[in-house]
Amino acid sequence: MFLVTRRYRFSASHRLHAPQLSDAENRELYGKCNNPYGHGHNYVLDVSARGPLEDRSGRAVDVEALDRLVSREILDAFEHRNLNAEVEAFRHVVPTSENLGMEIWRRLRSNWTATFPAAWPRLEKIRIAETPRNIFEVRANENE
Amino acid sequence: MFLVTRRYRFSASHRLHAPQLSDAENRELYGKCNNPYGHGHNYVLDVSARGPLEDRSGRAVDVEALDRLVSREILDAFEHRNLNAEVEAFRHVVPTSENLGMEIWRRLRSNWTATFPAAWPRLEKIRIAETPRNIFEVRANENE
Amino acid sequence: MFLVTRRYRFSASHRLHAPQLSDAENRELYGKCNNPYGHGHNYVLDVSARGPLEDRSGRAVDVEALDRLVSREILDAFEHRNLNAEVEAFRHVVPTSENLGMEIWRRLRSNWTATFPAAWPRLEKIRIAETPRNIFEVRANENE
Amino acid sequence: MFLVTRRYRFSASHRLHAPQLSDAENRELYGKCNNPYGHGHNYVLDVSARGPLEDRSGRAVDVEALDRLVSREILDAFEHRNLNAEVEAFRHVVPTSENLGMEIWRRLRSNWTATFPAAWPRLEKIRIAETPRNIFEVRANENE
Amino acid sequence: MFLVTRRYRFSASHRLHAPQLSDAENRELYGKCNNPYGHGHNYVLDVSARGPLEDRSGRAVDVEALDRLVSREILDAFEHRNLNAEVEAFRHVVPTSENLGMEIWRRLRSNWTATFPAAWPRLEKIRIAETPRNIFEVRANENE
Amino acid sequence: MFLVTRRYRFSASHRLHAPQLSDAENRELYGKCNNPYGHGHNYVLDVSARGPLEDRSGRAVDVEALDRLVSREILDAFEHRNLNAEVEAFRHVVPTSENLGMEIWRRLRSNWTATFPAAWPRLEKIRIAETPRNIFEVRANENE
């Protein structure tokens, strides 16, 4: 069994503002991240899949297939975007890195079998670094 | 003589859109960076000052004074901001990293003597990394 | 469930010398780390907490509260300190990175509930990089 | 219990070519990695061992002993080598990073007890970064 | 005036062997880098161009044009290649990083005017990191 | 002409305390760096030499000779040392990174000709990173 991780990057902007809270509560809760004009980050996304060696190729994951999946479902949707304004999932959900992580997880999960129809590899975890100091992980089993 | 460099970070969002150009020209010129909702980056700013050793302290630059200058003039103004909407200098100037570099240079230059009234240290260069792959430098002599 | 990691840094000095061993045994065991005048490192500390999404904030961990805890219990005590001479826990215990990790773990554990009184988030692991080549992790379950 | 990780580096070249496949199948499967003249990488290898604190030393792993093991079994064999031509294990096995990881794992496993004859520390995982974007992990329990 | 730097990566293999020297002299001169089967690196290439702000775009360098130049002249030729066997310039010249730097410099110089026909930007320097510890720079004025 | 840079690392401790100043002045000047028990850093040292291509080897700098020079004059003297107590040059001089840089520069300069007796390569600059945020450079011409 191998854990294979592939790193991707995208730049996006967001504003932390929970629609069900008042302006004052939002300012209290999110501080400068609640700035109405938004701010942005260079996100670093690591996608990790687990699987046994495939005998024919000597590989555990078809990395080109993974790249196509991530490009189509994640990078095309988020790269150089305003997450609040341009991603449907964040119209009514605050785009914290936790919620961004869940959205990425859902997109990869729901398209995984079409990309990897065999029993393996399986999506094991994703890791989002909003900055080098702030890191968020979502793992299989805990979220399904 | 020593060159002393100090590193700072700030996250901000921007949109590349030149007001004197048509929408079609802007899309052609800036591509995805012209996205009307903006996007963002974790900017890394290096400020370099040159000077001789100061005998009393064994230092060439009073780093605490430099930190106060950069915090007040740069970080307080740009950190977690939308550069187009919230920084006066970019109301009518497109916030490319080159123009951002010039704005940072001007702010440091015009407040330098108040912070460092002696002949030394002098502001030598600034370096902005928009991403690890895109780096912009502004140097003294070339811009004064 | 999310794993949220936050990175901190501090610089400190230490000397590896076990009080119950002879000088010769200490030199044999610790080599250049036993140098009587000590040496130092830029330590990088990652603190990881696990928890479910809190509905109101869309976050799993109150990062500001975590920062206050780490600043008060860890950074204020270790930053720019000589670990042997200035940290009570290392008066009679050799400040290897393993023992430093346990001391950090104990300080965070014993103040965790005061900072995070709800069932979640829980302290999951800490990771100390003494240098980029030497990394030490302490995890929950294994040390309680 | 501690997890102690130590980082090593080596530069090597390889060619991905599965001997049981036709030239056309190899080109299809490995793309530019099938280039008959080979190419190369700066591999980064992290070796992680788990164990309790040893009371006498205040350490969990004798890092010098680990260094000697890795130097002798891994670095001496792979550093500045052509993996296909100079490592026996890859004469008939394609040197993907997965197979490279398994070969490193086998070498460390089969020499572990001679280096660490006590119950602890145990080899927990190895991690190979072929490039900063392509990372492969092999863990105990899953491969024994 | 701005200095704009753009970072590229390629993986390649090489062998240091000077054709005009004997086998013994080569072994003496290049040590393990003379290994007849070659070895490899993940090269990091920084290309720096200098120029004034172009008023219309607010940029100093058309980065997309630079990317096309570097892709066509450098990455297509070196990525996943054996430098000795597959790059004409190294058939009779030893592919040290110095010679690799000069070859990259010549390729960029001789195609620069076709890509950037105006007076600016000008190619200022290239920097090749063979590993994070070994760095080579070629600058304008010194090599023309 | 090439600029060749080689990176080295050492860990050391120091205390900033100027002997000609009072305790109060030292505390005021150096803050927490004046802590009487000292603290420490993982220093990163880059040594850069300039020279033309040597025809026989295709190299500009004999890196093995440079390594021997730096090991003997710098690393053996500073690695795992307390700079104040164990380095003669800092008995009466405060070991700021500026003074540390000058001491390294002097040691390399005074032994350069013995190591590199030909006209080239010449020592061009050294760069010391005390932490990733604090960087000090010393250059030829400015200090001779």
Descriptive report:
The structure is a homohexamer of 144-residue chains. The first copy, chain A, is 33% helix and 31% strand. In chain A, a hairpin with a 2-residue loop joins β4 (122-131) and β5. The longest helix of chain A is centred in the C-terminal third of the chain and has 19 residues, at 97-115. The relative contact order of chain A is 0.20. The two termini of chain A are 22 Å apart. The radius of gyration of chain A is 17 Å and the shape is elongated. The mean pLDDT of chain A is 95. With 144 residues, chain A is an alpha+beta fold. In chain A, strands 3-1-2-4-5 form a 5-stranded mixed sheet. In chain A, α2 crosses α4. Chain A binds chain B through residues 9, 11-14, 32-33, 35, 37-42, 79-82, 85-86, 131, and chain B through 9, 11-14, 32-33, 35, 37-42, 79-82, 85-86, 131. β5 (134-139) of chain B pairs antiparallel with β1 (2-14) of chain E.
